[in-house]
Design brief:
The protein is mostly beta strands. The protein has one helix at about 10-25; strands at about 40, 45-50, 55-60, 70-75, 80-85, 95-100, 105-110, 115-120, 125-130, 130, 140-145, 145-150, 155-165, 165, 175, 180-185, 190-195, 200, 205-210, 215-220, 225-230, 240-245, 245-250, 255-260, 265-270, 270-275, 280-285, 290, 300-305, 305, 315-320, 320-325, 330-340, 340, 350-355, 355-360, 365-370. A hairpin with a 6-residue loop joins strand 18 and strand 19 (about 205-210). It starts with 9 loop residues before the first helix and ends with a strand.
Amino acid sequence: MAKSNTHRPSTQTQSQLSLFQSANGTGKDAFDLNQPLFRIRERGHYGFMNSQGEIMIEPQFLDAEDFYNGFSRVLLNDKLVPMDKLGRLLMKRLFNYVGYFSEGLAPVQLVRRWGYLNVNGNLAIEPQFEEAGEFSEGLAPVRLGGRWGYINPQGEFAIPPQFAFADVFSEGLAAVKLDEGWAYMDTAGTIIMLLPFDECFSFQGDVAPVRLGRQWGLVHRFSEILLEPQFDIPNNEPYGEFSDGLAIIMQDKYYGFVNTEGEIIIKPQYTYAGDFSEGLAPVKKATNFGFIDKKGKQVIDFQFDDAGIFSEGLAPIKIKDRWGFVNKTGKIIIPPQFNNVIPFRDGLAWTETNGQWAYIDKDGAIVWQEA
């Protein structure tokens, strides 16, 4: 289905900032830090543009990731370094590894110990842990002395190390592995549910997926076991993730959908299925893809060789090895012509044709194209 050398001297970043200042009159404060930026590639180097196709950060990195929580990560001297939307690198020192920022802090590894970096590039929590996860709901899981616990943003243990494993908090609860079995715990450290499963995952609203062997089911934060594990786990694909209120299920190699109440809304009957988005989901019958609504009604005929999810009113579809886009009535808005595409985001879609990148708008017009 459709997808979702050396760094230039620091003067390049300063030069780019000067361009922002001259273009906007009042300098850095005039630059909209909330505007979306899109990753671009030129001559094997990566940078970023805005939605009008204007280059905001010159292509200069051997690799760069999309922005997440205000920061990208770019490759510098074989290390990932955080970068803000002004192209400024948080590089007061180089770490073995830098994770993603969440709640203003990112886990970092220095030699063999982990600590946390703040958005100013300073160490907020000194490296001292054996492993470290992201902050969520004011707490982060860390491992010390072979056991997992949770720290607050000051680096103090709010829940002492005592678990074989600990996941991040979500919806006020976190999955923790005990010496025998799994449990869910609240932010005060109180065990809420003891469960006889092989693995438990984060809550999504009031429900969370759980695994037993090669099958998964659901638990509810109030009624505990909602669905005993009964859905097959696909190979190399995520499972138990809700999108638009429904999650894909698989039984006997056929795909269907379950809701957050544990009801199988659409019985397994398709040879493949993608997530629901904007009320529709791409599904495959025999050899062709079409789209269904949340009642299982066919909305767009089974006529495509492949299909992706709807985003901003359009969905990628593939016909004869080329990708294009359709609207919710099934009308082809952008004819199939690309080798690869990613669904629309902030008004633009990434495309690739014969190895060349381009971004198009919803009329199919090219906003930016790789030189």
